[in-house]
Structure formats: structure tokens, C-alpha cells
């Protein structure tokens, strides 16, 4: 329940929400040969499940953005951000939950490797107190924490 007494909108993503993400609207990203962070190097494509309404200042709850690194189906890395709820992740990228995904053998479905406000300890870039995802995406607060130029074109910053 929100501060106004109304029920807060919440969206909890499961593996099925990511199925067929390659059929969603896609945004190819320029190759970054100097990228040193796990999902910035090389060729990448972002996908979004639905555009926000025109003139939106942020992405609505239920928005799913998937970033997939180029490579063969078994080894390519897949990360996602899901707008879960207005009060989720309050000390980081407010509203957003982070995911690492792997492809199922059918190439359509995915498995969730981890989810939350950041990667768990032991992950290649995990262990930051507020979650490593929050650190990098915090620089794009005015674009509702979406870092890529393609996503920036979908909302009107305040």
C-alpha cells in the first residue's frame, strides 16, 4: 500500500516473462572494443518488451529491458532490468530489479541465474554494497537509469 493508501503497483518477473525476448523491439548497440565491464565489450543488442507511452518521463512498472552480448547460444551473456515497483531498490536505481539470464537449450526460454538489487557475492562484478548494477546505472538517473542511447529516445527526461 502506498503513502496515499492506494495499492502500489508491483510486477514480479519470472522466466516466462523473458521468453521470446528476441522478437521484441530491438536496439543494436555499437561495438565497444575497449569495454572492460562484463557486459560492455563487443557487439550487443538491447530489447524492450513495450515502449512507454509517448511523453513518459520514466518507464512504467512492467517494463523489461534485456541486453544480450553477441556469441554462440550457449555462451552469450544476457542481462536484464525489470521495472518492478516504485519503491523497489530505494537506495539504487529506484524501481528496477537486475537479472542475469542464460538460454535454455530450446533457444526461446531462459533461466534466471540471479536477480535482485545487484549480483550476489562471488559474481564477477558482485559484492558492491548497493549492487554493482546500481553504481553504473546511477549515472543515468535522468533517463530512469537506462544507460543506452536507444532507451534514452523512449522517454522525456524531467
Defining key terms:
single chain, 158 residues, mainly beta, six-stranded antiparallel sheet, 6% helix
SSE string: EEEEEEHH
- What is the averaged pLDDT score? 85
Secondary structure: helix percent: under 10%
What coarse outline follows from CA principal-axis ratios? globular
Percent of sequence in beta strands: 25-35%
Spans of at least 5 consecutive residues whose pLDDT stays below 50 are: none
Biggest sheet overview: 6 strands, antiparallel
- Tally of helical segments: 2
Spatial strand sequence of the major β-sheet: 1-2-3-4-5-6
Please count the beta strands (DSSP E, at least 2 residues each).
6
Distance between the amino and carboxyl termini: 26 Å
> What's the alpha carbon Rg, rounded to whole Å?
15 Å
- The helix/strand class is mainly beta
Describe it.
The protein is mostly beta strands. The protein is 6% helix and 27% strand. It contains 2 helices and 6 strands; from the N terminus they run E-E-E-E-E-E-H-H. The chain has helices at 132-137, 149-152; strands at 25-32, 42-48, 64-69, 78-83, 96-103, 110-116. A 6-stranded antiparallel β-sheet has the order 1-2-3-4-5-6. A hairpin with a 6-residue loop joins strand 5 and strand 6. The two termini are 26 Å apart. The model has no long low-confidence stretch (mean pLDDT 85).
In short:
The chain is mainly β and 158 residues long.
Q: Topology, pairings included?
A:
Blueprint: E1 25-32, E2 42-48, E3 64-69, E4 78-83, E5 96-103, E6 110-116, H1 132-137, H2 149-152
Antiparallel strand pairs: 1-2, 2-3, 3-4, 4-5, 5-6
Amino acid at each position: 500500500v502506498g503513502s496515499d493508501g492506494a495499492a502500489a503497483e508491483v510486477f514480479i518477473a519470472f522466466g516466462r516473462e523473458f521468453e521470446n525476448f528476441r522478437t521484441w523491439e530491438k536496439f543494436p548497440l555499437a561495438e565497444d572494443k575497449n569495454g572492460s565491464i562484463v557486459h560492455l565489450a563487443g557487439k550487443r543488442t538491447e530489447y524492450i518488451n513495450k515502449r512507454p507511452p509517448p511523453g513518459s518521463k520514466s518507464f512504467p512498472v512492467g517494463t523489461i529491458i534485456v541486453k544480450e552480448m553477441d556469441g554462440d547460444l550457449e555462451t552469450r551473456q544476457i542481462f536484464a532490468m525489470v521495472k518492478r515497483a516504485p519503491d523497489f531498490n530505494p537506495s539504487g536505481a529506484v524501481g528496477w530489479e537486475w537479472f542475469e539470464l542464460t538460454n535454455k537449450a530450446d533457444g526461446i526460454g531462459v533461466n534466471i541465474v540471479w536477480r535482485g538489487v545487484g549480483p550476489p557475492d562471488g559474481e564477477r562484478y558482485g559484492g558492491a554494497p548497493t549492487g554493482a548494477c546500481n553504481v553504473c546505472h546511477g549515472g543515468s538517473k535522468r533517463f530512469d537509469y537506462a544507460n543506452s542511447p536507444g532507451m534514452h529516445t523512449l522517454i522525456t527526461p524531467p
